[in-house]
Amino acid sequence: MKMVMPLLVSVLAVSACVTASLCDAATKAKAKPKPLPTYKTSFDCANPQASAEKLVCHDAQLARMDLELNRLYLLALTDEHSVPRPNKVEIDQRFWIESRNQCDGGTQAKACVIRSYAERAFQLRQGSAIARTKDPSRLTEGPVAYRCAGFNALVAATFFTVEPGVVFLKWANTSITLNQVPSHSGTQYTGRDYKGNYSFWQIDNDVFLQIPGSGQMSCAAEPVG
């Protein structure tokens, strides 16, 4: 019996040590993940009002789109010749914020927010010459009108030069937001909706558009004015 007791104590000590190690490992495993980075936006990220705003606060691409859109909005407010007029631009902006905030926290939330910003940028730039000024810090271009071979409608394109880039295309009663994808040459944007797949590809001065139900169309920018 005198030989057994020390052995039993030793086993218990080892067991306690192993248990402590496991507990310590479990504690470390349960450690809270690092908080997401918070980016500068046009609104207060310390008190976001909707899940869409939370998403913008913690996403570099969306945060830059937000700042650029706010820049366009403030410029449009100074444009007495804007269409609509500045007082209506302000009202429309409030409705737009409410609409953007309807993008919920689902798997498509970011795509919804991107489309919301892209479409609003198109509206502001289309309606205000001041918003279209060539500010060196701008992150938007357009709308640029393209005439595509075999396609009757003019295609208006507004670009967000963020990372990755975004283009909003509009023709007739149709619009689509496409996202930049890696390309071996030029700049390519792709996307899809319930009709199928879309592609907009710029290679130097050549532009190609593909929409559901058509082959690749060659497009040329319409002269301004």
Description:
The structure is a single chain. With 225 residues, this protein is an alpha+beta fold. It folds into two domains: 36-134; 139-225, Beta Barrel (Lipocalin). Helices cover 38% and strands 24% of the residues. It contains five helices and eight strands, in the order H-H-H-H-H-E-E-E-E-E-E-E-E. The chain has helices at 4-29, 51-57, 60-77, 86-100, 109-127, and strands spanning 140-148, 155-160, 166-171, 174-181, 187-193, 196-203, 206-210, 217-221. An eight-stranded antiparallel beta barrel has the order 1-2-3-4-5-6-7-8. Strand 2 (155-160) and strand 3 (166-171) form a beta hairpin. Helix 3 (60-77) runs parallel beside helix 5 and helix 4 runs antiparallel to helix 5. The longest helix has 26 residues, at 4-29. Residues 1-18 have low confidence and may be disordered.
What attributes characterize this protein structure?
225 residues; alpha+beta; Lipocalin; 2 domains; eight-stranded antiparallel barrel
Tally the structural domains.
Answer: 2
Mean pLDDT: 88
In terms of DSSP E residues, the strand content is: 15-25%
- Catalogue the unreliable spans: 1-18
Counted by DSSP, the helix tally is 5
How large is the radius of gyration?
Answer: 27 Å
Shape: globular
Helix/strand class = alpha+beta
The share of residues in helices is: 25-40%
Task: Name the strands of the widest sheet in spatial order.
Answer: 1-2-3-4-5-6-7-8
The count of DSSP E runs of length 2 or more, i.e. the number of strands, is: 8
Query: How do the helices and strands follow one another from N- to C-terminus?
Result: HHHHHEEEEEEEE
Largest sheet: 8 strands, antiparallel, barrel
* Distance, first to last CA: 105 Å
